[in-house]
């Protein structure tokens, strides 16, 4: 999923369309609202694909605000601090395996159910209870694919990147967008 941002009355090719996936958009939208809350306030749907946005004057004003932040070095300083904060976050227990590193074994079929009735060839081939010595079983279960068996994963916030380049690309879009809507 991503945010498709369309220029309302583009004055150049860069102002026609801007896209960020959901991972990149959240930090960018947060940064814009942090450095220019009054300019961003008319758009209530920064994190929704509902067609909200800013008019042409708001888009140009936000572009100017972003340009000042980039020129001053504050955007790059923010990006470094943001990355540092993410790096320093401790791993958290995996939610898939409950921090054990082991997936729970599949449930036993009901006494009256025959699993071979559904997919007879696949049941025999992939039944984890029949695997042995292949390194995929761990302590009576299957090694968790969410944490690769460690029991811990990076916090989800660590998957949301931020960069000065992304801010600069958005700023270029804003300058030529004639206002924008987020879909």
Question: How many domains comprise the coordinates?
Answer: 2
- Give the end-to-end Cα distance, rounded to a whole number of Å: 11 Å
Shape: elongated
Q: For the CA atoms, what is the radius of gyration?
A: 24 Å
| Main sheet record | 4 strands, antiparallel
**What order do the SSEs take from the amino end to the carboxyl end, as H and E?**
EEHHEHHEEHEEEHE
Number of strand segments: 9
Beta strand %? 5-15%
Strands of the widest sheet, in order across it, are 2-1-9-3
Report on the architecture of this protein.
- By secondary structure, this protein is an alpha+beta fold.
- The chain folds into two domains: 2-89 and 158-182, no CATH class; 92-153, no CATH class.
- It is built from six helices and nine strands; from the N terminus they run ββααβααββαβββαβ.
- The longest helix has 17 residues, at 56-72.
């Amino acid at each position: 999923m991503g945010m498709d941002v369309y220029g309302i009355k583009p004055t150049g090719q860069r102002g026609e369309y801007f896209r960020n996936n959901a991972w990149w958009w959240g930090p960018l939208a947060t940064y814009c609202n942090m450095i220019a809350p009054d300019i961003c306030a008319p758009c209530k749907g920064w994190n929704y694909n509902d067609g909200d946005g800013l008019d042409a004057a708001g888009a140009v004003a936000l572009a100017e605000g972003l340009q000042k932040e980039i020129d001053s070095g504050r955007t790059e300083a923010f990006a470094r601090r943001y990355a540092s904060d993410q790096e320093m976050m401790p791993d958290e227990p995996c939610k898939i395996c409950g921090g054990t590193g082991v997936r729970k074994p599949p449930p036993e079929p009901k006494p009256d159910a025959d699993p071979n009735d559904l997919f007879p060839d696949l049941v025999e081939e992939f039944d984890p209870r029949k695997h042995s010595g292949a390194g995929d079983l761990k302590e009576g279960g299957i090694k968790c694919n969410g944490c690769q068996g460690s029991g811990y994963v990076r916090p989800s916030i660590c998957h949301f990147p931020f960069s000065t380049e992304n801010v600069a690309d958005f700023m270029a879009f804003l300058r030529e967008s004639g206002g924008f809507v987020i879909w």
